Amino acid sequence: MTELDAGVIARHVAESGDLGEPARGGPEIGAARRRKEDARLVTGRTRWTDNIQLPGMLHVAFLRSPLAHARVLRADASPALGRPGVVAAFTGRDLAGELGGLPCAWPVTEDIVMPDHPPMAADEVRYAGEAVACVIATDRYKAHDALEYIEIDYDPLPAVVDLTAALAEGSPTVHDAGNRAYVWKFSAGDTEAAFRDAPVVIERAYLQQRLIPAAMEPRAVVAQTDGETFTLYSSTQIPHVLRVMLAQVTGIPEHRLRVIAPDVGGGFGSKLQVTAEEALALLLTRRLGKPVKWTESRTEGNLSVHHGRGQLQRVAIAAEADGRLRGLRVDLLADLGAYLMLITPGVPVLGGFMYPGIYKMDAYDFTCTGVFTTKMPTDAYRGAGRPEATFAIERLMDELAAELGLDPVEVRRRNWIAHEEFPHTTIAGMTYDSGNYEAATEKALTLFGYDALRAEQARRRDRGDPVQLGIGVSTFTEMCGLAPSRVLGSLSFGAGGWEHAAVRMLPTGKVEVVTGTSPHGQGHVTAWSQIVADALGVPFEDVSVLHGDTAVAPKGMDTYGSRSLAIGGVALLQACDKVKEKARHVAAHMLEASADDIEFSQGVFRVRGTGSGTTIQEVALAVFGAHDLPDGAEPSLDSDATYDPVNFSFPHGTHLCAVEVDTETGATTIRSYVAVDDVGKVINPLIVEGQVHGGLAQGIAQALFEEAVYDAEGNLLTATLADYLVPSAADLPGFVTARTETPATSNPLGVKGVGEAGTIASTPAVVNAVVDALRPYGVHDVPMPCTPERVWRALQGGTGAAHRTTVPEGGS
């Protein structure tokens, strides 16, 4: 048990007096159950993809381009064939034509430029790290050693790394069609009128730096075939989506392709992808007739896992003199990288619906331009568009407060949606079903000691303390649980928003759950067991959960976007309801009563008004025997359900951060952090707290530590973990977390998402705190990550904020 886990459990014990077991006879939902899956996961008694060993298995290594942009003049893999252990070697030209291009499932506009994306480059490379050849050998080290013998001659082409320069006339192009992939617009209200003669107009430009996902488990793939059917093991978040897409890329009939996601060690969106390595592994096993495996190194991952964020935000807000918002304008340049991967174009568009945040305003205008560059493509990363949107509006709210001399909390109070106004349709067209921003904020302010910290800040400023105190505020909401399918269709999303679940009642009364969600650290096995235990009245220990294998769980839309509980959990509840309805008729027959007189509670069917009853386990055994069933009844209680949600879910919260900034060195230390989140009905508070902690770590990392840096030639300068700073526990503060609870009205469980909340809220809270500490020095922004050097440089060139500012160009 980690110190963090111990602290969480100790606090729960102090509050509830137990170690996570529900009160005797009490409900499972809401109980802080320790996760069922953890015992084997943390002790290594499990099956990661890289653990898989198959008879005769070969290993693949990929040669990757050292150049960001170049023509391939000559490619020859034959010199590698004579090396020890090498079985085969291929260049992109050798494999050209055997695979289709990698898919993009979100063409956001009708005229979007969608260049072909070959799994292995044959004629031209467009980012450093793109695969150009491969070696297959008897072990991974021999395969890697042989890569250096492959001969590739390149003709260098100009790199394209700067977003604004990429759109300039005469810029080098990534693809023949140019560097502009699409322009997507949304407008509501009269934005021109909102800004015309507004007492306050603030314009800013914020760069959302590229981030590199760093899941605990690197990507890995194993492919095998018996000549007729194919099995792909992959460290993926999306086994069902992957099966459909790979069938199209490879030409393997879908019914002959099985995809298995074994235990997966984190994803954060980076494994929400159809990758070149997965497609190539199937091709190679088909060519060679033997199992093949590939596992990435950390450097290889930094180069070839899709990146997150990568946006230049030009934003402007118009307000009345009292701080009431009139309008918001967003002009976004999205760095798509060299190709459009699975949902690359849609990520910034998804965020477009959330720039207004929790605030009321009269007008909103959003324009997103997708830009090709010679860098690794971007795609979904924890939050996928919503962290960027929340950052922009929360930074602007602090800038507005500073301009008007108002407290940052007060300017938010004057603009947010009041709890009695729900449901509320925002200026961006989203209908928020429930929320209470006032309650979450008041609780956070109390836990934080807001007034005392403001008083201390004033004293430090008065005495000119070289270590200044900064206080950051972030009041946020997010849209999660991608849904409904018709709405996604209207946005040109290539899939639906539904989810599937099945419940099997075994003869001995135990329960098997089959879920279309595919966990990679979220605790689905535990939470799903709690839902079923309460719904069917069976012991928590008697529920098992099957997932992540398309042959076992054939239907599903998988796990991403905080959708699993709000959609998959509801599908599971509906399947349980069907089981109970089947069992009710059998129980009535067993009890010689009318089905209309049968009540169900805590696992027992009873005849209303009598003491006569039978358990659901006894019904399951009777159905198995099938000796005396009602006429027309099938001998099975098993049921499944597919749920298509009626709306997104909208968790919210208030995060407060206090930092100490040394004005002489630029060093920033987080002194305290309070997060009060409202995720609707809570199934397991321990899981919720763990999700919040993990999200906070990633959001704070963007604010203070992480950045993928490219040079002018398109070389990734942060290709190793020695160069790319992923914070450890030693770099992060202790967190004070709490909750308010406004159940969702859009689903019967009343649940909302939690997996991305901490990431979305924390980045602006931390940066607002840093800037707040530096405002007396004329600083109104520090580019992320707020490293000591950047803080120090901002102090040297600080300028006061004005009513109108010139928006800077650039961004890479």
TrEMBL record:
GO molecular function: anaerobic carbon-monoxide dehydrogenase activity; iron ion binding
Keyword Oxidoreductase assigned: yes
Keyword entries, A-Z: Molybdenum, Oxidoreductase
Xref: Gene3D superfamilies: Aldehyde oxidase/xanthine dehydrogenase, a/b hammerhead, Aldehyde oxidase/xanthine dehydrogenase, molybdopterin binding domain
Any coiled-coil regions, as ranges: none
EC numbers on record: 1.2.7.4
Top-level taxon of origin: Bacteria
Record-linked InterPro entries: Ald_Oxase/Xan_DH_a/b, Ald_Oxase/Xan_DH_a/b_sf, Ald_Oxase/xanthine_DH-like, AldOxase/xan_DH_MoCoBD1, AldOxase/xan_DH_MoCoBD2, AldOxase/xan_DH_Mopterin-bd_sf
SMART domains according to UniProt: Ald_Xan_dh_C
Domain Aldehyde oxidase/xanthine dehydrogenase a/b hammerhead intervals: 43-158
Region (Disordered): 15-37
Protein name listed in UniProt: Carbon-monoxide dehydrogenase large subunit
